[in-house]
Write a structure and sequence with these properties.
Length: 261
């Protein structure tokens, strides 16, 4: 039996004594995309931050490859987990290449010098994120969507087995949304990357994820395949809107739409 690369056991997280996550339990295998759904305020971003080790658990445990995340050093975590955050805090005077080079920080010597291998990793990450044309431009000149592509490239440059993504398609037009998610799916299928991705768009995440978890008021109330989770009976009460489920017409994943009144 294959061992889970990520195990979350009874995870509870509090912020200012306010419970945000409540007894969340799940596991993720190598080479799998787990999509996290839920309305605003459900705790999706908090879950991503807890999985990355930024937020300590009030109760429970997050393990990566059998090791408790909150007990790892910052450098150890950075070699195992890369994060594509929702918010952008990129230095405006940096070039795109300099931003992506930050992903190599966990591997640099005390002088911070980039080796030929590091530079190759940076270039490859730019290519995988469709961001080569942004490499020599200053971040302050870039759109939100262009900065989001650099954040993905920075994460890919870390060369970690695990990628956490918090609303990675924010600010991207439809072309780049599909391009980004296709790239992530390809990395999962060809390189065994493990991805946990929080996304608002039910149909996009349903198309690319292997399994979906539905988070409501800090609790994981459902976990299963897209076919099992993308149902009007489950989602309509959560999103407080009548929904209908349609076939994609090609035998693919189901499509969820608001019911026409």
């Amino acid at each position: 039996m294959e061992t889970s690369i990520i195990q979350v056991q009874n995870l509870s997280v509090e912020l200012g004594n306010q419970p945000i996550l409540r007894e969340v339990t799940f596991s993720v295998q190598r080479g799998e995309i787990l999509g996290i759904l839920g309305p605003n305020g459900a705790g999706k971003t908090t879950l991503i931050r807890a999985l990355s080790g930024i937020l300590p658990p009030a109760k429970g445990r997050v393990e990566v490859m059998g090791r408790a995340v909150h007990r790892l050093s910052e450098s150890e975590r950075a070699r195992l987990i890369a994060v594509v955050p929702q918010a952008r805090h990129l230095p405006p005077m940096f070039t795109g290449r300099e931003v992506v080079q930050l992903g190599r920080t966990p591997y640099l010597n005390w002088l911070g010098n980039l080796s030929a291998y590091d530079r190759n990793c940076v270039q490859r990450a730019l290519e995988r994120a469709s961001a080569v044309e942004l490499a020599e431009r200053q971040v302050g000149e870039l759109s939100g969507g262009e900065q989001q592509r650099l954040l993905l490239a920075r994460a890919l440059a870390q060369e970690t087995p695990i990628l956490l993504m918090d609303e990675p398609t924010t600010h991207l037009d439809l072309h780049y949304q599909i391009s980004l998610l296709e790239s992530v799916r390809h990395l999962v299928d060809t390189e065994g990357l493990t991805v946990i991705m929080a996304l608002h768009d039910l149909n996009l995440i349903g198309r690319y994820a292997d399994r979906l978890g539905l988070l409501v008021e800090g609790r994981l109330i459902a976990l299963g395949t897209p076919e099992e989770i993308l149902t009007p009976d489950l989602l309509s009460p959560v999103y407080r809107v009548p929904l209908q489920r349609l076939s994609s017409g090609d035998g693919g994943r189901p499509i969820i739409l608001p019911t026409v009144l």
